[in-house]
Design a protein that fits this description.
By secondary structure, the chain is of the alpha/beta class. It has 30 helices and 14 strands. A hairpin with a 2-residue loop joins β13 and β14.
């Protein structure tokens, strides 16, 4: 089997063929997990320098990827345990001066509520140890220091074989100490199983997940460089101005990185004789322009174009007002009027008895439309209009609608949606659509200079043109007036002969231009004009030489960027990922995953592996073997099953690795139900027989499950409790939270409270301090007796936070009258001692003494001894007299 170490070695060998700047990017992905925007730009600067682009300031020298940069690449053959984490500085809000003590082989549970500091310690371990996904260590937001502080910590390690301990110093930005790389960290981000974009559960062997990250980085870098290259290739206005039918224009049109600057230098060398010749040519060209037939023809055709545009505009005005448009408008008006009259008649008949007149009028309909919109959008958005149920309000006066108003609203709505009213509304809208272009018609003033030009050619046409705008407006106004009066015989007729006059003039002007075309100058004049253009272009190029030479440099830089883009080809990355996946994903590893899945009781689904190669992401999809099911596993497997498969893959890889260092789990039961949490707890307890297992959790039931299975499998387990005090988190305590302590641990705490209470009682029996310790003791005593009933009297058959009932332990359970009375009296005494129960005032005068507390502890201990004695007798008796049932 190819081990993770060999996989990294293969990646290192492959990276030797990469440019140093790409190898540096690979190194950063292994060290940091992801690259910041600043780091991406730094990689690009390295690539530019490597491709001949000079930068100031110079970027840092690329550091090629090596084995020492990859997590988990310890070459030490010793098995290493972390025994302490101490002297933590600048890590989130973790308190300074704290020490977390960890067991060697076996289980260490670090419990803490949310905000207690677990995340800070887990981030620290992920940065310092072996993990796929590192998280940035955040500064202490409560710190008053203005200078940035670097996270650091000391890890005291122990070598298994020799037992020798030594400190390892870690600091952000420095290489991870070699021996710490033996420690592997798992959390939801580090899962070997994940849901990808295709929504399929997939598996990537350890180490190879760097390849999809590298492909994504390549794509990002290409996008950034492409944007920069596009800007470099953009021609500015100077280059556009230098284009033309001359030598300079041709050079500029083909300008590229291959253009030799010497050519530009030669063209921009202007001597005094050149300036003198340009002056002569300039005078000659100006003289030609004055009497140039080509220029005159151009001017005549520009006049023709202006007259043609004016004619088109007048034609457009006439199209809106001609007989066809008026007839269409008249038909729409008559139809709308017919429908409106029908609607008004229906309104009069239907609403003659209403208190106000005008229902159905235009003003009424407009008001009703706004009322409807207000109801639907604001007043009653969740109810159909109109809202007339009990308790509804008028949309205008906001008064409660009585029965008459409700009926009236219903009649109004029926009327509005009635076919007659709808036809009237639709026909009116259709008329408005036709009328709007006429009513809104605006006439542009005719350019006086154009009228003057036309007058020179034909004064009668000019006079007619000057009166055309007024005529158009008169026709328009007559139509608007007719719409109001209904007298369609009073509309003025359009006088369209101006269009014919303008057409005749356009044809005449074109003939004039053609006559000028026949008088264009000969070849000699063309040569003068060409020489003038050539010298003018060279003089202009001389003034802008620096800009043109700068463009050549930019084009050369763009070529370098193109080389960088071409080198960011993801195909070799995907090919290498596929090769290594085939080498690593052996039968041995697949069997190891299968064993882990069975161990975690995922044996109801026979999972197999199917190769898959999405772009830049060589992986193996988990599939249901021996079935015809083609559905997505994320639709078949629950979220808990997917999470459990992730842990199984993680443990399978570790089982085949020669590195037998410790493992860290950050909330492995997060988002799991009780069933899966129990299975994970038992599996991790078993792993504690093989190596050091460190578990962070905030889940009390998961914590108790770990203790339960540690007893069952006889695996050593120890614990730490993290707490937050004010703004300082990560306060370490050896004691578990009260709800997680067993009866024995609670008795120890009660004894401690009794001693503290004795000292306070001696100083002042009526003090608040003694009262507080007194109440704390009796509150703890009550809950301890409750735990003793579960743990001692009922022999752990039924336990809080436990999803099952241990029926096999019933063989040691017996409860007699003495047990009942002992528990009843003890609970009564402890309840009576708690002032929170608000007993009668005279009872407070009988507050218990420290001797009473010691007596209660003694009763608890004697109860435990008696129960243990009875249990042994009961087990022995039942073993002899009762034959156990068979299944």
């Amino acid at each position: 089997m190819t081990t993770p170490v060999n996989a990294i070695q293969s990646i290192v060998e492959w990276s030797k063929n990469l440019p140093n700047w790409q190898s540096d990017a690979l190194r950063r992905l292994f060290v940091n997990g992801d690259l910041s925007q600043e780091e991406k730009l730094e990689i690009i600067d390295m690539a530019k320098m490597a491709n001949g682009i000079v930068l100031d300031p110079v970027p840092p020298t690329a550091i090629p990827f090596a084995e020492s940069h990859a997590p988990g690449q310890s070459h030490s053959k010793d098995i290493i345990y972390i025994r302490k984490i101490r002297d933590v500085k600048n890590v989130n809000a973790l308190a300074s001066g704290q020490t977390i003590t960890l067991g060697a082989k076996g289980i260490t549970v670090i419990y803490g509520d949310n905000g207690s500091g677990k995340s800070g310690y887990s981030r620290l371990l992920k940065r310092a140890c072996r993990t796929r996904h590192t998280e940035k260590i955040l500064p202490n937001i409560f710190s008053k220091s203005s200078t940035p502080s670097i996270p650091e910590a000391v890890f005291d390690i122990q070598v298994e074989e020799s037992g020798k301990e030594e400190p390892l110093y870690w600091k952000e930005g420095s290489l991870t100490p070699d021996k710490l790389s033996q420690i592997a960290v798992f959390d939801t981000h580090c899962a070997r199983v994940f849901v990808d974009e295709a929504n399929t559960v997939s598996f990537i062997p350890y180490g190879l997940d760097v390849f999809p990250k590298l492909v994504n980085l390549f794509d990002t870098l290409k996008s950034i460089i492409n944007d920069e290259r596009t800007l470099l290739l953009t021609h500015d206005g100077i280059l556009q101005e230098l284009l033309g039918e001359h030598e300079v224009g041709k050079i500029i049109a083909s300008l590229s990185s291959k253009t030799k600057p010497d050519i530009i230098e030669a063209l921009t060398t202007i001597v005094e004789s050149d300036h003198q010749e340009y002056k002569k040519l300039d005078v000659a060209v100006k003289a030609l322009q004055v009497n140039d037939p080509a220029k005159q023809a151009l001017t005549i055709r520009q006049t023709k174009q202006r007259i043609s545009q004016l004619r088109d505009k007048i034609q457009n005005y006439f199209n809106r007002l001609n007989d066809t448009a008026v007839q269409r408008l008249k038909s729409a008006w008559q139809f709308a009027k017919t429908k409106s009259d029908a609607a008004k008649l229906a309104s009069v008949k239907q609403f003659s008895g209403e208190p106000l007149t005008g229902v159905g009028s235009d003003a009424w309909r407009e008001m009703y439309k706004h009322a409807r919109e207000y109801s639907i959008q604001n007043a009653y958005p969740d109810k159909p209009f109109p809202v007339i149920d009990g308790g509804s309000y008028c949309l205008l006066c906001m008064q409660t609608l009585d029965s008459d108003a409700q009926g009236r609203m219903k009649r109004f709505e029926n009327y509005v949606v009635d076919k007659t009213e709808k036809e009237a509304s639709d026909s009116k809208k259709a008329f408005i659509v036709l009328f709007a272009p006429i009513k809104d018609l605006r006439i542009d003033e005719i350019d006086p200079t154009l009228i003057a030009v036309i007058r020179e050619k034909n004064s009668e046409t000019a006079d007619l043109l000057e009166s055309t705008n007024q005529h158009i407006m008169e026709v328009k106004d007559s139509i608007v007036a007719t719409v109001k009066t209904g007298d369609w015989q009073s509309i003025k007729q359009l006088k369209i002969h101006i269009l014919n006059e303008l057409k005749l003039m356009i044809d005449s002007v074109e003939e004039e231009a053609k006559a000028k075309d026949k008088l264009v100058k000969q070849e000699e004049q063309k040569q003068i004009i060409q020489k003038h253009m050539e010298l003018a272009a060279r003089i202009k190029l001389n003034k802008n030489k620096a800009s043109v030479l700068d463009h050549i440099k930019r084009f050369k830089e763009a070529d370098c960027l193109k080389n960088i883009i071409d080198s960011l080809n993801s195909r070799p990355v995907s090919t290498k990922a596929a090769q290594l996946t085939q080498q690593i994903l052996t039968t041995e590893l697949r069997n190891a995953i299968s064993i882990e899945l069975n161990c975690l009781n995922i044996n109801h689904i026979n999972l197999g592996l199917k190769p898959s190669s999405p772009k830049g992401n060589t992986l193996h999809q988990l599939v249901i073997a021996d079935t015809k099911n083609t559905g997505k596993l994320t639709k078949i497997l629950s979220e808990g099953e997917q999470h459990v498969i992730a842990i199984a893959s993680f443990l399978a890889e570790l089982s085949l690795s020669p590195i037998k260092g410790g493992i860290v789990f950050d909330d492995p039961a997060s988002s799991l139900d009780h069933k899966w949490a129990e299975r994970i707890a038992e599996r991790l307890i078993k792993e504690g027989n093989e190596r050091q297992v460190i578990i962070f959790t905030h889940n009390i039931s998961f914590l108790l499950a770990l203790y339960k299975y540690s007893a069952k499998h006889q695996v050593k387990i120890s614990s730490q409790n993290l707490r937050r005090i004010a703004s300082s988190s990560g306060q370490c305590h050896d004691e578990l939270p009260w709800s997680a302590r067993n009866t024995a641990k609670r008795k120890e705490k009660l004894a401690e409270l009794s001693q503290q209470a004795r000292k306070a009682y001696k100083d002042d029996p009526d003090s608040d301090e003694y009262q507080k310790l007194h109440d704390q003791f009796y509150s703890g005593l009550r809950s301890t007796w409750e735990r003793a009933v579960e743990e001692l009297l009922l022999n752990n058959v039924v336990m809080r936070f436990d999803s099952g009932i241990s029926t096999q332990l019933l063989n040691g359970v017996t409860v007699d009258d003495d047990d009942y009375l002992t528990v009843f009296n003890a609970m009564s005494h402890s309840s009576a001692g708690i002032s929170a129960h608000d007993h009668a005032a005279e009872q407070h005068d009988q507050i218990n003494t420290p001797d009473d507390m010691d007596s209660e502890i003694k009763k608890l201990k004697e109860f435990g001894k008696n129960i243990e004695k009875k249990r042994k007798e009961t087990v022995a008796r039942r073993k002899t007299n009762i034959k156990a049932p068979t299944h």
